[in-house]
Amino acid sequence: METLHYRFEQGTRPLAGQPQLVGVVGSGNLEVLIEAAPLGGACEIDVRTAAVGFGATWQAVMADFHARWQLADARISINDMGATPAVVSLRLDQAVETLTGGTP
């Protein structure tokens, strides 16, 4: 098991609303908890993954997600069981859309 942490500063889209949980923890899948949090305009993402050694891939997927959404004051927690980058991006987008009802 590996734990990764990412923080992106100067987001422009603050979140509001109740925390949302999407996805399931299962082989090739993941769950994403997204919630508003007072982080000074930052977005923090914590990843717990069963796939050890893919930090560079996670960094690229998280940077792409942040570039797409520019979230501010948001905390995201991910429990991963070996999801592909495409599934990770899908679940992250699904989590944001569930909370905001919008598109990037």
Automatic annotation (TrEMBL):
<dbReference type="InterPro" id="IPR023439">
    <property type="entry name" value="Mal_deCO2ase/Cit_lyase_ACP"/>
</dbReference>
<dbReference type="Pfam" id="PF06857">
    <property type="entry name" value="ACP"/>
</dbReference>
<protein>
    <recommendedName>
        <fullName>Malonate decarboxylase acyl carrier protein</fullName>
    </recommendedName>
</protein>
<keyword id="KW-0963">Cytoplasm</keyword>
<dbReference type="InterPro" id="IPR009662">
    <property type="entry name" value="Malonate_deCO2ase_dsu"/>
</dbReference>
<dbReference type="GO" id="GO:0005737">
    <property type="term" value="C:cytoplasm"/>
</dbReference>
<keyword id="KW-0597">Phosphoprotein</keyword>
<feature type="modified residue" description="O-(phosphoribosyl dephospho-coenzyme A)serine">
    <location>
        <position position="27"/>
    </location>
</feature>
